[in-house]
Structure to design on (119 residues):
């Protein structure tokens, strides 16, 4: 069973950058599609970005791709989300998630890391 642990969140001023990391343990994630999601205060959880098992394809929710970059290192069993030009609206709990080829949806989730962007 894969266990995911996020890190890298924190408090940052608007316009700043953060790099979130997701460390996987239990088994290799090289066969999993990995994703980042976020849930802002009083809002539903929202898709941010996903990356294919081999890392060749990254998909973003609308305009996130202009400021965020998802990447993975299968040798290190990690996934990252580089976030630039952060805005107060990016304040949220950010989750890492994994989906196997057999699953229709993401079934493995981390506990989340909090990102707070001050104006």
């Amino acid at each position: 069973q894969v266990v995911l642990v996020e890190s890298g969140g924190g408090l940052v001023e608007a316009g700043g950058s953060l790099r979130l990391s997701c460390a996987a343990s239990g088994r290799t994630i090289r066969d999993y599609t990995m994703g980042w999601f976020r849930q802002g205060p009083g809002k539903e959880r929202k898709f941010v970005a996903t990356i294919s098992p081999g890392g060749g394809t990254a998909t973003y929710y609308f305009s996130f791709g202009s400021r965020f970059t998802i990447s993975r290192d299968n040798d290190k069993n990690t996934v990252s989300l580089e976030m630039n030009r952060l805005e107060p609206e990016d304040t949220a709990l950010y989750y890492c998630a994994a989906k196997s080829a057999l699953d229709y949806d993401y079934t493995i989730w981390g506990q989340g890391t909090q990102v707070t962007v001050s104006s």
